[in-house]
Specification:
Elements: H1 3-31, H2 35-48, H3 56-67, H4 71-93, H5 98-118, H6 121-132, H7 134-150, H8 153-172
């Protein structure tokens, strides 16, 4: 092999290596997981796990991590968690009679009444301020959008008294 052939071969190998490296970098940038998506998956797994954030410091850390997400991603995370919890609730109550389901809703209504009765004036003011803010109104609107989109008519019929109870207490604040 003469020197001219060797130079051409080296140039071709160099070009092939450069093209391969560029293609690998492009593929990595396209297919690598988005760091925010990885964090969403981690937080979703933590929220839905049986050993989720139980103690106060773990809950604070969880909420701080959620607050670091963009508003759109926070909304997506909340919808995914609630959708999974709804699926689990449906699985758990699949074999329940209507009377059992109604009894559970009645217990939840009693719990809502008890929780609102326990609120002091400062807590009431904080909740009122939150729901009067643009973010609070948007969260409430998103909650209703989810409720009407994801719950079946039968589920809404069963849960409407609970929703009315919550809204009545919020309105009274």
């Amino acid at each position: 092999m003469d020197s001219l052939s060797r130079v051409r071969l080296l140039r071709r190998l160099g070009l092939a290596f450069t093209v391969t490296a560029m293609a690998a970098l492009l593929a990595y940038s396209v297919f690598r997981p988005d760091p925010e998506e990885q964090e969403v998956a981690r937080l979703k797994g933590l929220a839905l796990s049986e050993s989720g954030p139980r103690d106060e410091s773990a809950r604070r850390e969880f909420h701080a991590a959620v607050e670091r997400l963009s508003p759109a991603t926070r909304k997506k995370l909340a919808r995914e968690i609630i959708r999974e919890q709804l699926h689990r609730m449906r699985e758990q109550t699949r074999d329940w009679s209507m009377a059992q389901k109604q009894e559970q809703v009645d217990k939840m209504i009693a719990q809502v009444r008890e929780n609102f009765a326990k609120l002091d004036d400062e807590q009431r003011a904080a909740i009122r301020t939150d729901f009067q803010s643009a973010e609070g109104k948007a969260r409430l609107r998103d909650s209703f959008d989810f409720y009407y989109a994801e719950f079946t008519a039968e589920e809404r019929n069963l849960l409407d008294p609970l929703v009315c109870e919550i809204l009545g207490h919020l309105d009274a604040l």
